[in-house]
Give the backbone structure.
Amino acid sequence: MMTTKEKITAKDVQTLRQRTGAGMMESKKALEENNGDMEKAIEYLRTKGIAKAEKRVGKQTSEGVIGSYIHHNGKVGVMVEVNCETDFVARTDTFKELVRYIAEHIAAAAPMAVDKDQVPQDKVEKERRIFIEQVKTSGKPDHLIEKIVAGKIESYYKDVALVHQAWVREPKKSVGDLIKEASAKLGENIQVRRFVRFQMGED
C-alpha cells in the first residue's frame, strides 16, 4: 500500500475513475486522503455520494430543457440548456428547479464558460502571466512560483467556470455539487450543455 501522495500515479486515478465513475479531481483527492489505498478511496467516494452521483457520467444526455431567467430590473437575462437522459426526468419538478437555480446563478455570477476546458486559453494565459509577475514581485522563492501560480489558476477557474463556482444561494457548495446532488436524487446523468447571458449595454 502507498503511504505518500507523491506515489499516486495517473494510472491509479484512472483505475479509480473506472471503478466508481467519479471525476478525475475527486478520484485524485480520494486517493490522497486515503494514502493511495484503492478500496478505502472507493469507500470514501461512496460516503461522499460522489460515486453514486457520477457513475452515470458516460450515459447519453439527449433530453432536458432550456431554462430562462430575467432579473427583476429587466437588465440581465439568461438562457441555459441542461441535459438529462430521459424526458420523464426532464419533466420532474426537481429537474426544473435545478435548471431555474442554475439560470439564476448565471445571471448573478456571470460565468465565462461551463467548465475549465471551455475557458478561452488566451484568457487563462493572460491570467497566468499576471500571477507570475505578482508572485515574483512578492519575493517568493523561484522554486515555489510554479506551485503558487498553479493554485492561483485553480482559483481563477472557480471564479469563471460555472460548475466550479460557489453557488450563490449556498456558497459552501459549488454549482457542480448542486448538479451532482440532483443527479444522485434523480438517478440520471445531468449536464449543463451551454448558456448565454445578456446584460444591458454589453456586447
About this structure: The beta strands are 63-70, 76-84, 191-199. The domain at 63-115+161-199 is CATH 3.30.479.20 (Tetrahydropterin Synthase; Chain A).
